[in-house]
Amino acid sequence: MKRKVFVTSGCIILSALFLTGCAGLHKLDNPYEFSERTALYQSASVAGKSETFAHDLCVVSKDTADSDSSVTAEAAAVFDLSDNNVIFAKNPFEKLYPASITKTMTALLAVKYGNLSDEVTVTKDAVIKESGASLCGIKPGDKLTMEQLLYGLMIPSGNDAGVAIAVNMAGSVDQFAQMMNDEAKKLGATGTHFVNPHGLSDEDHYTTAYDLYLIFNEALKYPEFRKIIGTAEYKTSYQGGDGKTVNATWKGTNWYMTGERKTPDGLTVLGGKTGTTLSAGSCLIMGSSDTAKNEYISVVLKARDHAGLYDNMSNILNKIVE
């Protein structure tokens, strides 16, 4: 039987106040007061209004972190999409660095507002020089479709693909970041602020486990997004800047999909997005389904390392089938 934390459906009152950036890292060290955040989720009966924004969303009613010491990551949660229940939530509103999970929002904007058949010429903006940054290997002058760039973004976690998408859609990274923040506001992601399309660390670039659920939940509405995140390996060809054909093979980073970690019995992974930086730790958001085809979104933020990330994720996934 599922262990569920039943939640109260309600209206989410959006406020631009929560979308302003952090002044510095101290904001993340003292991230939130639960009572302040839950004020956003009033019961429709209390507010005297009909259900609107949140009537089909999971809404956290309390933090259950102290009920499971095996969940060692800074934040974690499991959301049941079949009946809008929160199965588990630890620090769901704590503002944390999302690393490459940021790319879920970038992909959402591309599938929601872009044209996947558009040809994109990669500009010099896509050159990423930060040490250790994950890349799909595209170079200035290369020509790819938006769809190919999305695979390069989500499968090998290409930061270069993220910039190429951003510049093509908005003209610059800064303008695309504004699109990201506007979309976050529309979705009720009030604890989120983005400054880039890929998630390389910036003290003004942060989100929460709950907000990531809102973003991922919206993205799952698009079949193109589901197809891309459900791909473990992608082979493609595109025109290089020198006019020659470039053959690329991009491999996924989700250990459940690559076979490096066994998915808990009774569940099937639909796909998701990993993220890792020194500041963010090891992170993962993904969708899964049970044998009855009920779907779930699970997220783990700031695990100590990759092994700890999947230990935490398996622990919370097991709560679905207990």
From TrEMBL:
<comment type="similarity">
    <text>Belongs to the peptidase S11 family.</text>
</comment>
<protein>
    <submittedName>
        <fullName>D-alanyl-D-alanine carboxypeptidase</fullName>
    </submittedName>
</protein>
<dbReference type="InterPro" id="IPR001967">
    <property type="entry name" value="Peptidase_S11_N"/>
</dbReference>
<keyword id="KW-0378">Hydrolase</keyword>
<keyword id="KW-0133">Cell shape</keyword>
<keyword id="KW-0645">Protease</keyword>
<feature type="signal peptide">
    <location>
        <begin position="1"/>
        <end position="23"/>
    </location>
</feature>
<dbReference type="InterPro" id="IPR018044">
    <property type="entry name" value="Peptidase_S11"/>
</dbReference>
<feature type="domain" description="Peptidase S11 D-alanyl-D-alanine carboxypeptidase A N-terminal">
    <location>
        <begin position="65"/>
        <end position="304"/>
    </location>
</feature>
<dbReference type="InterPro" id="IPR012338">
    <property type="entry name" value="Beta-lactam/transpept-like"/>
</dbReference>
<keyword id="KW-0961">Cell wall biogenesis/degradation</keyword>
<keyword id="KW-0573">Peptidoglycan synthesis</keyword>
<dbReference type="Pfam" id="PF00768">
    <property type="entry name" value="Peptidase_S11"/>
</dbReference>
<dbReference type="GO" id="GO:0004180">
    <property type="term" value="F:carboxypeptidase activity"/>
</dbReference>
<keyword id="KW-0732">Signal</keyword>
<keyword id="KW-0121">Carboxypeptidase</keyword>
